[in-house]
Amino acid sequence: MGIIGKNTPIVEQRADPFIYKHTDGYYYFTGSVPSFNSIELRRAKTIKGLQEAETFNIWHKHKTGPMSQHIWAPEIHYLDGKWYIYFAASEADDIWKLRPYVLECIGQNPLKDEWIELGQMQPAAGDNKTFIDFSLDGTVFENNGKRFFCWAEKTGGQFAASNLYLAEMESPIKLKTTQFMLSTPDYDWERIDFWVNEGPAVIKNNGKIYITFSASATGACYCIGMMEADEDSDLLNRNSWKKSRYPVLESDYKKNIYGPGHNSFTVAEDGKTPLSIYHARDYEEIVGDPLYDPNRHARAMEVKFDKEGKPIFEFY
């Protein structure tokens, strides 16, 4: 695919990549920086142009307390005429106390205008179970006139299972419904080193809604699974969803692509070809904790569909 190149990084050392193509024709890019201490944005008219685009550091972590450690997986969304960034952060004195937080841009230029903190994402009224433990990777999508928030949360601390949850949103910073557990690590490929479902992303096709997610620890075992439901079904009903029995994307040892995961979706410059933006490493062996290895590079692949309209993810 000429606009990107064969499996080559589009932005180096940016994990959890997220691209939003705005009505101004620009691609807005963000992701986890290796130091996990700030949120940056860049934009370009093309996917390839993001590599050399100027970076804007629009927010920096606090010195202490909430939002002072592990600034992870920011996503930029344009909702109700305003720019928002959703991200996870913990505390310097409690580094696994991760929670989802929200920033709002005061103006219409997210690169240069001021961003303000709106605090932690708020659960629905009366919900005392949501965002009370290790919570991260929030994403926002709309379906049939409703806006939804999908995120990962553990109940029982850092080493518990990480499940995916879904809820309808009341506003950009508050949920309308109580949490619905979309997925829990059921299969062996979701339970390597850690029991993990995280990093949800949404794509629609042929009357169906698909949520991809990442599974297992962050080394070469990291991979992508997928949930699917009919667009017109009740998305907060267990019976509406079906989960892939096997990963839809995993490490390719022949092509030296290891630990593909935490993707987002956008469209190519033609305005219609869907792209999956994901991160992966060029090597399998990692010294120390994979989480702190900086070489998870943002990459892109064209999403194709099978005869039933289901997304297919294949390295070039």
Descriptive keywords:
316 residues; 5-stranded antiparallel β-sheet; 48% strand
Fold and architecture overview:
This protein is an all-beta fold and 316 residues long. The chain has strands spanning 15-21, 27-32, 38-44, 56-60, 69-79, 82-91, 94-105, 115-120, 135-143, 146-154, 162-171, 174-175, 180-183, 197-205, 208-215, 223-230, 242-243, 258-267, 274-281, 297-302, 304-305, 311-312. The strands form six sheets. Strands 9, 10, 11, 12 and 13 form a five-stranded antiparallel β-sheet that branches. A hairpin with a 2-residue loop joins β11 (162-171) and β12.
Give the gist of this structure.
With 316 residues, the chain is mainly β. The protein has strands spanning 15-21, 27-32, 38-44, 56-60, 69-79, 82-91, 94-105, 115-120, 135-143, 146-154, 162-171, 174-175, 180-183, 197-205, 208-215, 223-230, 242-243, 258-267, 274-281, 297-302, 304-305, 311-312. The protein is built from no helices and 22 strands.
Question: Helix coverage percent of residues?
Answer: under 10%
- Helix and strand sequence: EEEEEEEEEEEEEEEEEEEEEE
Helix segment tally = 0
Low-confidence stretches: none
Structural class: mainly beta
Calculate the mean pLDDT score and round it. 96
3D shape: globular
Major β-sheet profile? 5 strands, antiparallel
What proportion strand? over 45%
Strand element count? 22
